[in-house]
Amino acid sequence: GDADSLYWKIDYIIRNLPEWMRPTIERTQMHIANVDFSSSIDGDSTNGDAFRGGRRKVGLFDEAAAMQQLKQVDMSTQDSMPCRIYVSTVVPGSYFSVLCTSGKLKSVKMHWSDHPDKGRGRSMATDPDTGEQYITSPWYEKEKAKRDATDTATNLDIDHMGAGATVFNTRQLTIHERLYGQRALRWSIRFPADVR
Question: Dihedrals φ, ψ of 88, to 5°?
């Protein structure tokens, strides 16, 4: 099997459990049934009708941002799957980014800085152009030097806006605002009572 697939990883975990922990398994294509607990893990293709017919307690959608029909899958599983977990790297302009920035979902970010090797020597730094603070490390600076701004935003910074889904480059807007922005002017205007 393909060691990058989720099913290969599940099979590997089950195979390497101590014998006393290993459940009785029935395995077919895109289906693993735990006979001892009457539970199963099922797969489906990533089309707009994925999991539309049955009922599931939990759904996990791996690399969700790359699913071209994620919006349809999201809508088709709302009533059949009370818990949906979307796992992905940022993809600019994707429905995954819409979901993540909507404020309607609980989001858990797994940042590179928590990795023991990539986060070694991490600290806070300030962008000299924007004044914004960010996490850095020797690994991050080395990676950032090899990448363009969109790649850095997408694959390192978990930045949906900086990843290119906006009309204007958000970094450039921040720099422009910092260089040329002025304090907002405020007026208090009182209209006559008969003006509506």
Answer: -175, 165
Question: SS3 for 118?
Answer: coil
Rounded Cα distance, 59 and 65, in Å: 15
The single-letter code of the amino acid at 155 is N
Q: pLDDT tens digits for 134-181?
A: 899 999 999 999 998 888 888 888 877 665 555 566 666 666 666 677
161 token code pair: 């806006």
d(CA 75, CA 163): 25
The helix (run of H) or strand (run of E) holding residue 154 is helix 149-155
Mean pLDDT of the chain: 82
Distance CA 140, CA 145 (A): 9
Radius of gyration of the chain (CA): 24
pTM of the model: 0.69
Nearest to 40 by CA among 17, 7, 18: 7
Residues 25, 35 contacting (CB under 8 angstroms): yes
